[in-house]
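Researcher: Structure for this, please.
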Amino acid sequence: PHYYLKIDVDAGPLMELRQRINRRLEAEGKALKVSVNAALLKFSAEALKRHPGVNSSWQGDYILRFGRADIGLAVAQEDGLITPIVRDCGAKGILAIERELADLIERARAGRLKPEEYTGASFTVTNLGSTGILEFSAIINPPGSAILAVGRIRKVPVVDENDRTRVGRQMILTLSCDHRVLDGAAGAAFLNDLKAIIEDPLDHIYTLID
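Model: Predicted structure, token format:
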């Protein structure tokens, strides 16, 4: 049932927000550092609030709509992948998600996750940017009906509305969707709103961080 939607995103504002948060944490003497993945989980949760149909599951003869965004992050292990889940990302800020995610990833790599900590994600994010992959298409992780594949952030020439060229940071996102649950228009609307949040995160700074 897979189909794929791809969009390019200006990742500059995301990186700026991350730097601001990490500078604040450093000034406060905290060892915590926010990752791109924690921000993407939060941004995805915000987009899912606007498009609850994406946060749904095919159940054979009906579609189940989840009441909260339980978002999994694909993590590589020596013998394959596991997807630890941050529950109810929509009710948590980026810092809370980062703390929980760091603990989950550490225990996932040590093989110490409980089944309930890696099963039942309503949406999944998988990021191969750190491995140098520019873009890719991911396989949906049931019971969810969509998965977001994130490529690496790279510098590219950007032409503005006045035809002036500058150096920008681009990231390619690919959304894999279950066509039994989501049609192309619904998937595209979600992806465009996610792009808008990533490209203007400071507009949401007070609700996203803490």
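Researcher: Any notable elements?
Model: The longest strand covers residues 165-178. The chain has a mean pLDDT of 94.
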